[in-house]
């Protein structure tokens, strides 16, 4: 298949997305942040959003707007589905008796994870209480998500799961006094507020039954619902909170990231289920029905592009398709919403199956590895045309964020009874475990490039081919003098500290991400593979030993260092306590703690009760 004007065409397409990313700066895409702008080198962004000092602008309240009728009222309110939920296929494997030694090892590992959590939690409690984040190196604080205590709310269900009930009820009492009706930040990321705050309150309520938490979830839901008050009821995903407070009219954006508009179904439907108010269900179905209608009409039928036009409801015009950054949780939520509602909304299973048919065909690939391990990774697909025919080009990259895909496919495969999905989910997870083990520090980088195999069935290691690919990816250009090119490759490999199999590592950071352990945990619960606890423990030891500070744990700027420790970026996002350590803890817990046949996790690792017969 001919390439897509490789040197300038792809570069132009990539540059467009770069501009969009730099303009919007998405959390879920803390990774995508600059990775499109260059195929070589490493870009590190350190956010230093101090909003709590004496020079911070005064908070603006949206209370008056909440008490007024909507400017664009819903003309036909969709109602929650009724009927008896289906008995969906069993997800979790059956675990046999545990030996005394295995139990001892497991509980020691679980205790180590809990100790790591408590170190961070106690430092947050004493130095950054009610702020969004603790600065883990200097003990400062910063507000990056509305100033509403993101770490506190994100950690509520982790506290409960770990049995830290005293800390849990102290945190609930503090959270009950947070007002989500006011913030000093002009722009609110609706996606992040939904998954961290609304998701955090809903899960903590589902676990504890504390009605204060449901009241806070409803408060957050009411505020978020205002972002949907547009002519077509599509949300402003980067919502100007201050403009909304002044009563200014708002319209949906004409360029929005797919993940940010397509990841409301779990939280909004669960909130409607718990309150009996269908308006949140109606809001998310308005989005999902539009996406379903255009699913087979995009430039890569079955999937949707990274950037969509919410204002015109055009979800198929752009040409970049991925399961990774910028699109990820839209796909993740399809099988999970099917599970949440007990199959009462068949469209979610249908959309999941159609999207994975396409992704498996175009996005998944086997990388050429020195140990010839049969693993998979998922890359970006660029879609163009030549002579009136559609052509696709795979950009073979690995993303730490995309490691969630292994767990998604395994879970989805179980729910729709597709063993191929489960197997490919295993291979995707194995690819992430390979990446962890292949880096000397023992931690997978944010973004790296590899060489795709010509065949998924047979892929022998070719060191010369790998080295020439390193030169080409670095932009040094291949010549007719192969010996000289191989010499250049050795220089690049040495300078950029590339382990065998890695063609480049454009983003060498580790920001305390959870996606790899998320998939290891899910595959362990789904398959019962006995090697996975040891893999998880190796990951935890590498992460904790390299990110630990006197107070907590910090994101790293470069995991490729071979001597000493990586420099730190002085950041500990709330998902470290809300997701990463929660998954590690559950990995070493009894299998009935948050049983996958009873709960489903949102993209921030908040477990919601499933509707079951």
Automatic annotation (TrEMBL):
Transmembrane segments: none
Name of the protein in its database record: alpha-1,2-Mannosidase
Pathway per the UniProt entry: Protein modification; protein glycosylation
Species, as recorded: Neurospora tetraspora
Enzyme class: hydrolase
GO cellular component terms attached to this protein's record: endoplasmic reticulum; membrane
Keyword Metal-binding: yes
Ranges where the record places region Disordered: 43-64
